[in-house]
Amino acid sequence: MSAADRTSNDADLPATTSPDDETPGADRAVSVTDEGDRPASGTDTTEEVVTPGRFKRFVDTAVRVEGRRARTKVRKLRERMWRQSPSRLLKQLERDYVRSVARIGGAVGATAAFPVLGTALAVGMTSAQVAAFVDASARYVLAVAEVHGIHVDDVEKRRTLLLSALLGEEGSKLVSGQIGLSGIGWARTALGQLSSGSVRSVNRALTRQLTKAGANRGMQLALGRLAPFGIGMVLGYRGARALGRDVVKGTQAAFGPPPERFADDA
User: Fold this and answer.
1) Closest CA to 20 of 68, 65, 80
2) DSSP assignment of 39-68, as one string?
3) Diameter over CA atoms, the chain
4) Strand-pair partners of 66
5) CA–CA distance, 205 with 167 (Å, rounded to integer)
6) What pTM value is reported for the model?
7) What's residue 248's pLDDT?
8) Strands (E), 41-131
């Protein structure tokens, strides 16, 4: 069985929103830095800093509320695409997710296209962008789990899936190393058997790595969002889409090839 179909190339600019697309209010294109790096009160800065503590709260919220939304998303897709295989549903989930987060990046870049006021507005939206990107990513990865017949009710295991996906393929390699597995598909083969202690240990390692990765990538994407005179719309869209594709690759590595049929099929 081949791996799930990769997300097809979309146009470089956002397409018209379809009724089935779930567009959060923001993306995660922002640096996540140490608490000590927060600017002093009144300091002028070009980017709102999202600290690890705030980022953790975004993740906490996402893993608690997005499970139900993920199940609803999959149920509606199956009703609409009732003749389609799990592989086709996974492809549709990927398209919906990447388009959703890409439109957020483009929207914020477009706001920054209006000099002075637009830049200030875009900076003010940064924290909301991070929260919404995390929400959308949690919904996506938990929806993929549902298609694979894996119902993740444990909040900490949901956190493992989300943090791993946010790190892309690197996250899947990190988890596999932590739990002593090789190859792809660790979520399908091992997630249900992991003890609470093992899950907490893996989550700590993922959080450390994600904080490091966020600090490295954030500034480049912030410059794309806040570029003036219309350039920001294109850079913001492409940057957010690239982040979304990283999450898709990480999710595919976590679950491996799609199932041939749905678990509840007769």
Assistant:
1) 80
2) PPTT---SS--B-HHHHHHHHHHHHHHHHH
3) 63
4) none
5) 12
6) 0.74
7) 96
8) none
